[in-house]
Amino acid sequence: MKAIGEILPVSHIVLDLDVSSKKRLFEEVGKLLETDSGLSQSDVFDCLFAREKLGSTGLGHGVAIPHGRHANVSHITAAFVRTAEAIDFDAPDNQPVSLIFVLLVPEQATGEHLEILSYLASQFSDKNVRELLQKCTDAAEVTKILSF
């Protein structure tokens, strides 16, 4: 599995993004990832939205990991967004979400995709990690918290 620092550059970390919905979040993430992912802004949006239609990627405890696989994604790329206000994400605990890790992977990267999702789920299940991410003041701190 690639290290989080390899797939999450500091330029893909946004703190206190002002969005009011999952749709707006995906639009902003599309702008952020379009260059590195190999997809257009609208393709990033469509990829994430299509996956979300299959079931919410909200984990609970204010966390979501929207992700998608696409034939035109050449390498795993990610973004981390902390929203200014929590947004509805249809999470299993019915709580709004403010910590979002977005993952785009090549279609054939099934194993690595699942390894990264598993690692992230374990990280975000730790209350201390969530609290630290809520308090971060810069992107470099996020990388340190999420890296192994």
Automatic annotation (TrEMBL):
GO terms for biological process: phosphoenolpyruvate-dependent sugar phosphotransferase system. CDD domains: PTS_IIA_fru. PROSITE patterns: PTS_EIIA_TYPE_2, PTS_EIIA_TYPE_2_HIS. One of its GO terms (molecular function) is protein kinase activator activity. Pfam families: PTS_EIIA_2. Residues 6-148 form the PTS EIIA type-2 domain. NCBIfam families: nitro_reg_IIA (TIGR01419). This is PTS IIA-like nitrogen-regulatory protein PtsN. It comes from Simonsiella muelleri ATCC 29453.
